[in-house]
Design a protein that fits this description.
With 354 residues, chain A is an alpha/beta fold. In chain A, 30% of the residues lie in helices and 19% in strands. Classes of the chains: A alpha/beta (354), B alpha/beta (933).
């Protein structure tokens, strides 16, 4: 029996620019990705697998430095003499200035350096074929040399037509076992979710080959969860009520451990002083991390009534509503904000950026 | 805003006055000196105080002092009012001291709210500005009409039109009094300036965020640049490693080839040493065998060879020149014979030496001319003879006819012809025939004889003309027809014969002319030949003689030139033969000299050729000797070069070492065995040295690149961190820009809304004016307009249809118009915000009763329809009557009758005091000394 632990798309040293997180949180997230690799190696040792395989995008070439390379090498060295087989992906291609190329790797680490298939015999009955990216984009049809024709990403039919028994893949960040009843190929997904679109648990794959064939078992590996919540603040007349509503989310233990993003919706009271930054400061410690609160509330003013006033304010409201009716949808948010800010100015209320 | 109650302890002439104020129309009616204007001023002072700012002005002090109570020591009053939103307030002012203590409190809660409005000096608590939205001056200008000031809306001490407009706009801003559109704009501008930042700002959030973004982008560019350099270094490192590997392989191969080449060279040296030994032995033997010729005078060989060569060359030349010399000698003999023959011919022709043969071309031309003249003459003579033979048979006939008809003119012929035609009709056929014949003959002969006949006829005509000039009748006119016919026939024959005779005569004359020419040519020829020939009798023979003599003279010239040529050639031949003879003599002399010298050197006698052969053989032996000496010396030198200071044994040791190195190279890389190179050892050494240098350089470069790659990125932040920072700054900049845009839009739209409000108020007030004027004047004036820039009122005069300023109309109409303007402004402001109470002090004095009624009706409608509160102070009885007629039972209206001050007790106060006394409650106003009202 041969057992392989497979993972992909760890994206060490990833930039979390898209999340608009604070610098300290981004650094923490990168450290958590390293922690995920430690856990994977620990799991491989615990399961006593024959090999650990990496389906690409272990790190991000443009961002990773020698420190990350040394970290990876030291983690893989812990597995020696168990073999670590790395197929460089489009984010970590095997190029001269890559960590794969520049660093000294432990003897148990094998890196597939070309886009042509290279066999590695794991046992008398199991040969693993690997190939790695030599650049950020691949146009060659790798599977063409394995008796199928396919583009990238290849289809289930391509793999089924090929002569392989199982394809260990990488690229998609969520778990995909295909076909689900009797998988012939699998994307393990990223071991840790990387943004708010990657909700739920994340996995590595344990592949077992024995006399009866191959079996593939997902093993949960993530420590981090991304979660989004919306709070309707209609009827809440004070900031304190909103603060309490946000804090109430943290009563769910899973939510408290999550990287949380809160969006406020509904119709606020006209006297409500909605200071998002103050809300964030007063609630963020309830969560593992709370993303800047998003204000999607409607304006607190009764626009219909104001528009009927014979006052300057009424004229202002009428003019802006007319402009909103005449403007393309893309201009509506700024016009809505202009209306909001103008009415707050008339009301003598503090004007805060929404 | 509605005033609900006023209580005055003392204010001017008023003291201990208290009155509930009707929420609609409240008329304070009383005669002069009853305190109506003082009461109106008291309300104003309670609402606004006497002072607008913290620094008291003299006019404000004067106004306060004007109302210092006459008798009462407490210069205080209170006013209760209610706002539209239901809040009720009590304002209490003490005007006695300079500080004018003022308090405002919420009547419902009892809470003092003075501080909510801010507190200034001299009782300056701006609660009215905030609650009503008007300054004191604006309030006075629109809602407060005092006696005599009806027409003074603007002017000194009053608001300017702009101030009034601004107040109206301010009222139009919002329902809340303490925030205006202008303030909203200022607030938005302030937020835009502080929280975003204008174009020129540097320290505000937007430029700061942009600066941060730019800095982060620069940092990212720097990181990318360094990363690109690292990538380039990595590629260069790989390339350098590959190059180093290639060079190492090349060095190994070249080292093998060098060892191989050096081994071959060393072995070659060893072989060469063996050959040199053998050559040394050979030359030693040669040296010994030629030792006897060591001192042979071979040095003279060069000179002797030169002499021998000279003798040989001379001999060969003489031998080769001998046949030609012989041929020239024979030629010389032939030339001698030839010369002698020519000399003889020359002597024979010597007599023609001076003959002028050069004249031959002239003579030949004359001969030719003469012969040509002779030919012409002969031909002419022949033609003359032929003409004579033709003319001979006709000569007699010609001579006969000539005298008879030769002189007939054409006129004569015509007359003869006429003569034939006229009388003899019967003979017409004959005559016709005759005429036809005459015509035919004339035509035939005519052409041939025309010229001759023309001459003759001309000659005859001249004669006839001479005779014709004579006035006589021709005899031909009277001759008979037969005679005429005969004459005509004779005339015709004459015309045929005459040309032949004339031709013969012409030929004869031509022959005579050619004879003359020929004789002249002969004379010329003869003259030319004269002196050149002996006999000129026969010109032909004379010519032949001339030609012969000229030919002889030319022949003599040829012979003379031939003789000169022969002499020249003979001289040349003679020189050649003589030179040949001299060379033979020189040859014999040189041979003798050479033979003598060789005999001495060789030491024996013989022919010069034998002696020279012996000399050459001895020289050969001498050369062999010298060659052996030189070769032995060269071998000695070569041995030193080949061994290069080493001994043969050491050479053998070097060969052994090279063989060992080659074996080691092959052991390291078996593929090298058998490798060959065309390059020599030096070239290989140079190549090896160059490659080793390259390898050292590459090793240094590899080390440098390796070190640099490891250190380049140190000191730089993680790219991910910088990207995150850029994203944050980008988001911040975008948010700030959008925030700024929204603020700017809000600002601009509010500004537009203000403009619209300002634009609208004048028409609105104008409409009120028009309606009010029409109503008050009973329809006489139905159009009123307001100029917002000057607050002037114009109306249309019905008689003219022209718009005129109301100032030119009657006092009553002016008063009505400006009163309506005040009320219109107040109601316009009230319609936009908090209703403004109108305080009108006898505004109707200039109106007639009808217009007073109309105006009061209008005010009542405003009270009822627009919810205005109007306090009207008047002494007018018509007003009182109107009130009693129209409002006596209206709970929103009230009339208070004021009495003259002296000894009076206000009605309202007395009623309240009486009521208080009945119920036992403490009156709300406490008078000094504790006495109740």
């Amino acid at each position: 029996m041969v057992r392989i632990l497979h993972f992909a798309d760890l994206h060490l040293d990833r930039s979390f620019a898209g999340l608009s997180v604070a610098p300290s949180e981004a650094a923490k997230r990168r450290e958590e990705l390293r922690a995920a690799l430690r856990r994977i190696v620990d799991l491989a040792l615990e399961l006593d697998v024959d090999a650990l395989t990496v389906g690409g995008d272990l790190y991000e070439h443009e961002r990773a430095g020698p420190d990350t390379g040394n970290f990876i090498a030291s983690e893989f060295a812990r597995l020696a003499p168990k073999r670590v087989l790395v197929a460089p992906g489009n984010h970590d291609p095997y190029v001269p200035d890559s960590l794969y190329w520049r660093l000294e790797w432990p003897p148990n680490v094998h890196i597939f350096q070309t886009m042509s298939w290279e066999p590695v015999e794991l046992s008398d009955t199991l040969t693993l074929w690997g190939a790695g990216h030599r650049g950020p984009a691949v146009r060659d049809n790798l599977l063409a040399t394995l008796n199928v024709e396919a583009g990238r990403p290849f289809t289930r039919e391509d793999i089924e037509r090929s002569s392989v028994d199982f394809a260990l893949l990488g690229h998609y960040h969520e778990l995909r076992l295909r076909p689900q009843d009797a998988p012939r190929y699998a994307y393990p997904g990223s071991p840790e979710p990387l943004d708010f679109s990657e909700t739920g648990d994340h996995y590595v794959l344990l592949l077992t080959a024995n006399g009866q064939g191959l079996s593939c078992e997902p093993r949960k590996i993530n420590e981090v969860v991304y979660q989004t919540s919306a709070i309707d603040i209609t009827g809440m007349s004070t900031s304190d009520a909103i603060r309490k509503a946000i804090c109430a989310l943290a009563e769910d233990e899973a939510a408290a451990r999550a990287i949380m993003r809160v969006t406020l919706t509904g119709q606020p009271e006209s006297d409500l002083d909605l200071d998002l930054n103050a809300l964030l400061q007063s609630t963020h410690d309830r969560f593992r991390y709370l993303d800047p609160i998003i204000d999607k509330t409607d304006t607190p003013f009764d626009l219909e009534q104001i528009a009927e006033e014979s006052t300057t304010r009424g004229a202002f409201a009428r003019m802006l509503r007319q402009e909103m009716a005449d403007s393309p949808p893309a201009d509506l948010p700024v016009l809505q904000n202009a209306l909001h800010y103008g009415l707050r100015a008339f009301a003598g209320q503090e004007i805060r950026r929404r | 805003m509605k005033l609900s109650r006023i209580e005055i302890q003392a204010f001017g002439c008023l003291s201990d006055f208290a009155e509930d104020i009707a929420p609609g129309l409240h008329i304070f009616h009383g005669p002069n000196e009853s305190g109506k204007s003082t009461l109106q001023q008291a309300v104003l002072a309670l609402l606004y105080g006497f002072y607008e700012g913290d620094r008291a002005k003299a006019t404000e002090n004067a106004a306060r002092h004007r109302f210092v109570p006459w008798k009462h020591p407490r210069y205080t009053a209170r006013l209760e009012y209610e706002l539209q939103d239901g809040h009720r307030y009590l304002v209490t002012r003490d005007f006695a001291g300079d500080d004018n203590p003022t308090t405002v409190s919420d009547i419902v809660t009892g809470r003092p709210v003075t501080d909510d409005f801010g507190r200034g000096r001299h009782g300056n608590v701006p609660f009215m500005r905030k609650q009503l939205g008007m300054t004191r001056r604006v309030f006075e200008s629109c809602a407060f009409v005092s006696q005599g000031e009806l027409l003074q809306i603007t002017g000194e001490g009053r608001v300017t039109p702009q101030e009034m407009g601004d107040a109206i706009i301010s009222l139009a801003d919002t329902s809340r009094r303490d925030v205006s559109a202008q303030k909203a704009i200022e607030r938005l501008s302030d937020v835009l300036r502080k929280q975003v930042g204008g174009p020129a700002a540097r320290a505000t959030p937007l430029p700061v965020a942009r600066n941060h973004l730019a800095a982060a982008r620069r940092e990212l560019e720097e990181i990318d640049r360094v990363r690109q350099e690292v990538a380039a270094d990595a590629e260069n490192l790989e390339r350098a490693k590959e190059q180093a590997h290639t060079i190492e392989k090349s060095i190994a191969r070249n080292h093998y080839l060098l060892c191989h080449t050096e081994l071959g060279e060393l072995e070659g040296r060893r072989n060469r040493l063996a050959r040199l030994d053998e050559q040394g032995r050979h030359f030693q033997q040669q040296l010994e065998s030629t030792s006897s010729f060591a001192e042979f005078p071979a040095a003279e060989r060069e000179e002797l060879v030169r002499a021998s060569d000279s003798v040989g060359e001379l001999r060969e030349r003489l031998v080769s020149e001998q046949p030609e010399t012989e041929k020239q000698r024979r030629r010389l003999d032939e030339l001698t014979v030839r010369r002698q023959s020519l000399a003889r011919q020359e002597s024979e022709l010597a007599r023609f030496r001076r003959y002028p043969a050069e004249r031959q071309p002239d003579i030949d031309a004359l001969v030719q001319h003469w012969r040509h003249a002779e030919t012409i003459y002969r031909e002419s003579e022949t033609r003359a003879e032929m003409a004579a033979r033709a003319a001979a048979p006709l000569r007699e006939e010609h001579d006969r006819l000539g005298p008879e008809v030769g002189a007939l003119s054409q006129e004569d012929v015509r007359m003869l012809t006429e003569r034939l035609r006229s009388p003899a009709r019967s003979n017409r056929g004959l005559i016709r025939l005759l005429l036809a014949a005459v015509t035919a003959v004339a035509r035939v002969v005519g052409r041939a004889a025309r010229s001759a006949a023309r001459i003759l006829l001309r000659r005859q005509a001249s004669k006839n003309s001479a005779s014709a000039r004579e006035p006589q009748i021709s005899p031909l006119a009277s001759i008979a027809a037969a005679e005429a016919s005969r004459l005509l026939q004779a005339h015709l024959r004459y015309l045929e014969v005459a040309p032949v005779i004339q031709k013969q005569e012409a030929e004869q004359a031509a022959t005579a002319r050619s004879l003359t020419n020929r004789d002249a040519a002969a004379a010329q020829l003869r003259h030319a030949l004269e002196g050149l020939v002996d006999d000129l009798t026969d010109l032909e023979s004379a010519c032949a003689q001339f030609s012969a003599r000229a030919s002889s003279r030319k022949q003599l010239d040829v012979i003379s030139s031939q003789l000169e040529a022969l002499d020249t050639e003979s001289e040349s031949l003679r020189d050649t033969v003589n030179r040949f003879m001299a060379d033979g003599e020189r040859l014999r002399r040189q041979e003798n000299q050479l033979t003598q010298r060789l005999t001495v050197i060789v030491g024996r006698s013989g022919t010069v050729d034998d002696l020279f052969s012996a000399f050459e053989a001895a020289c050969g032996q001498h050369r062999l000797h010298l060659e052996a000496v030189r070769s032995l010396r060269e071998i000695e030198n070569t041995l030193g070069i080949v061994l290069e200071g080493r001994s043969p044994a050491e050479l053998d040791q070097m060969i052994g070492r090279r063989q060992a190195e080659i074996a080691a190279c092959i052991a390291g890389n078996p593929s090298l065995e058998g490798a060959l190179s065309n390059a020599g050892a030096e070239a290989l050494k140079e190549t090896l040295a160059r490659e080793e240098r390259q390898l050292r350089d590459l090793e240094l470069r590899i080390e440098s690149l390796g070190t640099r790659s490891g250190t380049r990125l140190s000191g730089l932040r993680s790219r991910a961190e910088v990207e995150e920072e850029i994203q944050q700054h980008t988001n911040e900049v975008a948010a700030l820009e959008e925030f700024g845009r929204a603020l700017t839009i809000a600002h601009d739209v509010i500004d537009k809304a203000m403009t619209e409000a300002h634009r609208n108020f004048a028409p609105s007030v104008g409409r009120f004016l028009s309606d009010g004027l029409s109503r008050v004047t009973g329809g006489r004036y139905h159009k009123g307009m307001l100029d917002p820039a000057t607050f002037r009122v114009t109306t249309e005069v019905p008689e003219t249809g022209l718009l005129v300023d109301v100032d030119v109309l009657s006092q009553g109409t002016q008063a009505a118009a400006y009163l309506l303007l005040r009320v219109g402004l107040a109601q316009h402001m009230s319609s936009m915000s908090e209703p403004v109470p109108l305080l009108l002090d006898d505004p109707l004095v200039d109106l007639d009763d009808l217009r007073i009624d109309n105006f009061l009706d209008l005010l009542l409608d405003l009270v009822r329809d627009r919810n205005l509160q109007i306090l009207l102070f008047t002494k007018d009885e018509a007003t009182r009557r109107w009130f009693e007629r129209n409002c006596a039972k209206d709970p929103y209206c009230r009339i208070t009758h004021l009495q003259p001050i002296a000894g009076r007790v206000p009605v309202g106060v007395s009623r309240r005091v009486q009521e208080a006394a009945r119920t036992g409650e403490q009156p709300r106003l406490q008078m000094d000394g504790g006495s109740g009202l």
